[in-house]
Amino acid sequence: MFTFTSPNYEPFVWPFSIGMATLLIYITIKYIKWIYEFDKANRIKILKGLFSLGTLRSVKEIFLESLVHRKIYRENPMLGYMHMCFGLGWALLIIVGHLESSIYQASWANTPYYSIFFYYFLPAGAEYWGDEVFGFLMDLILLMILSGLFIAWGKRLYSRMVGMKKTTKQRPYDRLVKGVLWSIFPLRFLAESMQSAITGHGSFLTHSTGEFFASCLPVETLSYPLWWAYSLSLGIFFLLIPGSRYMHIPTEMVYIFLKNWGVKLDVKLGPNGELRGLSKFEVYSCSRCGICLNQCQLLTSLNNESIQPVYFLRKVREDVERGNEINNCLMCGRCEELCPVDIDLNALRMMQRQDHSVVTDETYSYIPSLSKTSPIKTGEEYSGCRKVAYFAGCMGHLTPRVIASMCNIFNKAGVEYHFIDEGGGICCGRPLRLSGNRAAADVLMQKNIERIVATGAEILVTSCPICYKSFKEEYELPIMVMHHTEYIDMLMHCGALNIRKGKERLVFHNPCELGRGCNIVEAPQRVLGAVGEIVATEFDGKASLCCGGSLANTVISPIERGRIAADALSRYTCSDPDCVVTACPLCKKNFAKVKQPVPIRDISEIVAERC
Amino acid sequence: MVNFGFTISVTRAVEYDKNDKGCAEYVALRVPSSSACIGCGGCSATCTAGNLTEFNIRKIQMLMKRGENQLYKEQLHKCMLCGKCLTVCPRGVDTRGMILAMIEYMREK
């Protein structure tokens, strides 16, 4: 039966209302300011995206990621459940609460505080459509949040319970805000229980505890102050959000919309070196959950607990000195792979690396141009219609066996090829780019493009994943670019290679730049499956480890690189394989520097042997 | 002066006391492993840039340690930072880090 009551009011609604209004005004102004900084192309994308499928996709993503926390579930179900309790639980509490109060009032337009404190305003004996179902649901949701809270408490005592070896060291301010957040739900539970003892509403949870409290406590006196406390905790939490990590709650949702509308990260910094546009949304979207911590090999192998994205982004937000954090990173992308908020962690760090290069006409002028006599073949020498060009890369030249194997494979498959850097080539420019020197990298890029295009080939095959990534992403070549694993896979697929399967047990180490960097995961698996027996490890595909040789890190010493390599190798070999296979000359070289329990070989070496 | 048809060579004494060792000190601080260098020249042998030009890391690090900064200053920007030298060094010297530290020092000066 529908009953209509006049709008209810109590002075205790004020802390909540003031807090919420202030927060809403604050974030609206802030977001408008950030969006105003977007360049024109991105602003147009927002306008176009508003009424596109992207908006629907965003709503779905917000539900799955911001509320259900699907990605964290994949990482650890218990941790996912904990985050879901807070995310989905709180959202349901608001939605179902609003629905219930709207049905009771027979109006959708009630004040926000009315639904939040609905059980206080609900008179004793009031009946409305679905009252028992709603009472049950609201109790169930509250119980869910409280169970999450218990896990959160447990996580503080023993983080391995939720699969985390390390958790974020939060600042005192964030711990305070967390304390306020954690007090909200128990206070609501107590207030509703006491109220239930007075008015008789509530269901299995609040009604039972209410009856219990009524038997031993003066519920009439305690109920009103508890509603005040509940409102105060909400209000204070809202007021504290802007300076805390909980800014991620509203920012993450806006970020998801912007991302789905196709807004691109602006990699150029502002005139004073400040972040602009989407990167601000990304920085504030970090919830400091600490999942990146356990991914970082600088932490697990070198015990460095200060440069991980969670701490780096905090320093970016606080705008404090962060030279070490910017440069001391392997850029392996393991953190980015598991980041539940999908923040472009590598790009955010890369864009802050300073470009020290001074480019003049003299820069790299010693590199022979194609017209001069040089160890590098000129355009005219590339006679005939060879379709394939091979680029071994700097690191490729350090592993002559890889080059010999590739030549062998080309010959066996009857492929005629141009060996671009046979007599020694030049660097692809990515190592320069990774150290921030983008302008100098562009000079090398132009020189390489000239060389590659002069071959007239249709496919460029490279042995080095570092070169591969830069050829693919930065060069904008008019021809197809393939890493040798992809190329071998293609040759096998079209029957050009006759492979004999062996009995060797192989573990594959997917190089960072190839697997996570360029999304090449299946090709090496197919190739390896054809030549031997693959031994699965927990570091397969995009979960692979970094060999420690990464040129992106300009801080750690070779000894520390060795420690990362040794750790990675021991983790790869714990299933006792016959051989660890990689597809990157740099990884091979770097592993070669430490004690190897089993041989380290390139995928091309094994294929060349068996075809 | 009487021309005997030959001259004696100019003294190539290294003026350790007069030279500016600021860069050497900066690099020693930033890249401690640089002190482990035995000057084997492995880095120069493998160097991508050295393959095409006079750029020679072994020589540069020697001049840097002597404080003869003017003699190699212009060479530094020839490096492509490809990292091959880092991989071949038998003494675990962060050669790439040394070049970066030298460039940094020269810029700040």
Could you describe the 3D structure shown?
The complex is a heterodimer of chains A (611) and B (109). Chain A folds into four domains: 224 residues, no CATH class; 86 residues, Alpha-helical ferredoxin (Fumarate Reductase Iron-sulfur Protein, Chain B, domain 2, Orthogonal Bundle), CATH 1.10.1060.10; 113 residues, Rossmann fold, CATH 3.40.50; 110 residues, Rossmann fold (3-Layer(aba) Sandwich). In chain A, 55% of the residues lie in helices and 5% in strands. Chain A has a four-stranded parallel sheet with strand order 2-1-3-4. In chain A, helix 3 runs antiparallel to helix 12, helix 9 runs antiparallel to helix 11 and helix 21 crosses helix 30. The N and C termini of chain A lie far apart (81 Å). By secondary structure, chain B is mostly helical. Chain B has a single domain, classed as Alpha-helical ferredoxin (Fumarate Reductase Iron-sulfur Protein, Chain B, domain 2, Orthogonal Bundle). Chain B is 39% helix and 0% strand. Chain B contains five helices and no strands. At the A-B interface, helix 28 and helix 29 of A face helix 4 and helix 5 of B.
The run of helices and strands of chain B is: HHHHH
Total domain modules of chain A: 4
> What structural class should be given to the helix and strand makeup of chain B?
mainly alpha
Secondary-structure class of chain A: mainly alpha
Q: Round the Cα radius of gyration of chain B to an integer and report it.
A: 16 Å
CATH architecture term of chain B: Orthogonal Bundle
* Beta-strand content estimate of chain B: under 5%
Per CATH, the superfamily of chain B is Alpha-helical ferredoxin
